[in-house]
Amino acid sequence: MEHVGYDQDNVHISTHTEAYYFRINTQKTATRRIQNASTEFHLYRVDWTPYAIRGYIDNQLLFQFTNEGKGYTVWPFDKRFHLLLNIAVGGDWGGAQGVATDVWPAAMEVDYVRVYKMIDK
Asked: 36 in a domain, yes or no?
């Protein structure tokens, strides 16, 4: 899930790989307008299986990236990863229109994070 401060209420769910990457304009992403994305709680969910990564907002499927079976550059998601929840400031995308100085202090309030192990069948 990605949300850029200068583009309020537009929420993106994306995967980033070597083959599908924004710098070469091949990224895989979906965008939805979510009213009050910065001021109300919403449920963001990722289902990550060996076959696909699916992204949901408020229990509605928004994004699906299917394993194409073309190797690591397309599907690096069969390795160990970690969760990262942060407020990123600046960068190529977030800083494209500058960084407003009146947004400080900034906070990200998270109600809960749940991680489930997939049951092998």
From this structure: yes
Within a domain: 112: no
Sequence-separated (6 or more) residues with CB below 8 Å from residue 65: 15, 20, 28, 52, 53, 54
Over residues 36-77, the pLDDT tens digits come to 998 999 999 999 999 999 999 999 999 999 999 999 999 999
User: Phi and psi for 13 in degrees, rounded to 5?
Assistant: -120, 125
What is the distance, to the nearest Å, from the Cα of residue 106 to the centroid of all Cα atoms in its chain? 20
pTM beyond 0.85: yes
- How far apart are the C-alpha atoms of 37 and 39, rounded to whole Å? 6
Question: Based on the number of CB atoms within 10 Å of its own CB, is 113 exposed (0-12), middle (13-18) or buried (19 or more)?
Answer: exposed
Q: Which two tokens stand for residue 13?
A: 């769910």
Host domain of residue 60: 2-103
Report how many domains make up the chain: 1
109: in domain = no
Tell me phi and psi for residue 10, to 5 degrees: -100, 115
Q: Answer yes or no: is 14 within a domain.
A: yes
